[in-house]
Design brief:
The protein is 72% helix and 1% strand. By secondary structure, the protein is mostly helical. It has one domain. The protein has a two-stranded antiparallel ribbon. Helix 9 packs antiparallel against helix 10, helix 12 packs antiparallel against helix 15 and helix 18 packs antiparallel against helix 20.
Amino acid sequence: MQPTRKPVIEYIGYLDSVRGIAALMVLFYHFIGWHWQNNAVHIASMFFNGSDAVSFFFVLSGFVLSYKYLVLEHSLDLRKFYINRIFRLMPAYMFVVLIQALYWNRTALNGHNMADLFVYNNQGFWNEMFLPRAQIKFYGAGWTLVIELVISFFVPFAIALARYNRKLLLGLLICILLEGSFISYFHIHFVLGVLLSAYYYDITTGVFRAKKWYRYRFLVLLGAIALYSIRHLDRISPLGTSLKNLLAYLNLDFFLFTGIASFVFIAFILSSAKAQKFLDQGIWRFYGRISYGIYLIHWLIVSIIFDYWSYIYPLFGTELAAFFVMLPVCMGVSTVLALLIHYAIELPFLRYGKRLTHKLKPSLVIGAPPSAAPEK
């Protein structure tokens, strides 16, 4: 007897909430680690692990981008997919790079320097404005957006493969892993996300619960937590030369382990009604909506605070007092600016992209998949 499917959800709001929490973790991580590096900071970073939140973002992106086509069974028009993706990522990113470039040049906002920046491109501004060029100077976290955009062009092919036979995704993961370059780890993250969509019904119905390993799911979750924290565990207590040499020989990066951990976290959330209820609260949904803006703009706010830290902290007597005042200030300012970015840039361009693609004729279309019912 096949397990009963839950009704298909058009929009999974609680996963937006997870994205919002992850964006806040990145903010806290950069604020804590920008100025201080000690064991207390590394321990805190295990709970506010912004360095590996990028793994979570990438796996989640793979799931969200493929959910519409593998779970909701919509057709995928390649040209429309790419155009919508560009309008989703680029406008807000370009605005933030512009603001960052002006901040970098704040001491010389004159005609000569502006020509050097915008006309002659001597600072590489236009290279950074267009993500695939992968030149990062003004916005330090921009490398993650390069990966997000570039691998988005790869995701439809993973979706097509999953529609033909979802088990082929496992072969794709092995091939990417054997290739072994740094960028490959992030392809793996996105494919893991697509894999979550391909096995969505197995995860959300009784199929996985019927497996023998399911009784040990909390041990699996604990193992994932350890993998997700491996970078900071290594900083607190180094893993050892022999193990690191083995990882180097196998060309295995910590991002691979944090990607696997992120896969487990998302699978757990998809299968846990309690986790979904917690994440479906208003405050998390709010930060989920503005998560992209938080991720983009917090870098500037943190930069400003610590560029002028020697002037700020004496106002509060001690660095510790300044820390507890400026952290909520950083969060508050980032929230307000992210809200403005969301409504003034993100939403208008998203709507424009949808209107544009609605007028386009079909291009290369990946049709509706066969039934995604759990296999016998």
